Amino acid sequence: MATNGIGPAAATAIAVSPVLVNRTAATATVVDPREGVVEETITTGRNPNHVEVADGVAYVVDKSGAGENGADTVTVIDLAH
Questions:
Q1: 13-36 pLDDT, tens per residue?
Q2: Is 14 strand, coil or helix?
Q3: In this structure, are residues 40 and 61 in contact, taking their beta carbons and an 8 Å threshold?
């Protein structure tokens, strides 16, 4: 629904994840969404490709089979520090 800045949709906030995955670098970058600056870059498992943020924590799924016995891994990032 486009309102061109008129009506309730003009005030609706859009949730943006502050974490970007860098698949080929095997890292996740935490960005301050208000300032648009990088806060930190964290090493993850190989091929990170999914991020879910809940309650101040980011969960990055590394789908590479690089974990023990070929399992995928999850990197947990505390965003509240």
A1: 545 678 999 999 999 999 988 888
A2: coil
A3: no
User: What is the SS3 assignment for 24?
Assistant: helix
Q: Are 65 and 72 in contact (CB under 8 A)?
A: yes
Range picked from 4-8, 11-15, 55-59 for highest mean pLDDT: 55-59
Pairing status of strand 37-43 against strand 48-54: unpaired
What is the torsion angle, in degrees rounded to the nearest 10, for the CA atoms of residue 32, residue 37, residue 40 and residue 45?
A: 80
Contact indicator for 53, 19 with CB cutoff of 8 Å: yes
Q: Which tokens hold the place of 42? A: 């964290």
Q: Alpha carbon of 69 to those of 63, 65, 72: distances in Å?
A: 13, 8, 9
Which phi and psi (to 5°) does residue 9 adopt? -65, -25
Q: Residue 40: which pLDDT band, with cuts at 50, 70 and 90?
A: very high
